[in-house]
Specification:
By secondary structure, the protein is an all-alpha fold. The protein has a single domain, classed as Helix Hairpins (Orthogonal Bundle), CATH 1.10.287.70. It has 8 helices and 2 strands. The chain has a two-stranded antiparallel sheet. The longest helix is centred in the last third of the chain and has 40 residues.
Length: about 240
């Protein structure tokens, strides 16, 4: 009886410690690395392995939902940001799944609009941690990379929204542009200014968005590098001042 009681206490202690470690890890800046890993797995690794082959639409909905929940959790230590991210993400998830169960043009417009809003909020949450006071670590850089990838996802929803409102805004030589992966492909190619040319924006709004994304991708990297270098210099000067 006593042995069983001790075993129960030991098991409870291990579980409590595991929960504490997970909580502390997610509330620390390590959550930026975890979030980046999640984006890479859901957006690139799993699709390349064929996980989304049968129903990419359902997979994209599941993956995007998980990404929103994880991104919202990063704001755990900031009550205002957590409430804002939680509200926007919850609304986005609700509209997303309503559109999956009962597809309609109106719901799809709302889904894309809410997705853009939630991505912007989560990107802001990440940048708050990336640019917080302190030394520039690899974790902060990984968080900045996650924001870059989020930008590509947000622009993909913007292109889809434009195509719904103005059909024929994009012309593709190889696909009908009916799959979420097609919009993501065009978005990341434009964000990185590779521009293969297999998908072309032909209407004014689509062209403006494409140019805007290309500029966003280049300006983000330039400003990011300048800011991180400045932060590292300031941190180094503060440490030198303390040691002198």
């Amino acid at each position: 009886m006593e042995t069983g009681h001790r075993h129960h206490l030991a098991t409870g202690a291990v579980r409590a410690k595991a929960r504490r470690v997970i909580t502390d890890t997610w509330q620390s800046q390590a959550n930026l690395s975890l979030f980046l890993g999640l984006i890479v797995l859901l957006g690139f690794v799993f699709p390349a392995m064929g996980f989304a082959r049968d129903d990419f639409r359902l997979y994209s909905y599941l993956g995007f939902t998980l990404m929103l929940i994880s991104g919202t959790a990063i704001a755990w230590g900031h009550r205002t940001l957590l409430l804002l991210a939680g509200f926007v993400s919850s609304a986005t998830i609700a509209v997303f799944w309503m559109n999956l169960l009962r597809p309609s043009k109106i719901l799809q417009i709302w889904a894309d609009g809410c997705s853009i809003a939630s991505i912007l909020v989560i990107a802001f949450v990440l940048l708050v941690q990336v640019f917080s006071h302190g030394r520039v670590t690899h974790v902060r850089i990984e968080g900045a990379i996650a924001v870059y990838l989020l930008l590509g996802t947000g622009w993909a929803h913007a292109y889809h929204l434009v195509e719904i409102l103005q059909p024929g805004s994009f012309i593709s030589a190889t696909t009908l542009m009916s799959n979420p992966s097609d919009w993501a492909y065009y978005s990341y190619v434009t964000l990185s200014t590779v521009g293969y040319g297999d998908i072309t924006s032909v209407k004014p709004v689509a062209r403006i968005l494409s140019v805007g994304e290309a500029l966003t991708g280049q300006l983000y990297l330039a400003v990011l590098i300048a800011r991180l270098v400045a932060m590292e210099v300031i941190s180094w000067q503060e440490n030198m001042g303390k040691n002198s």
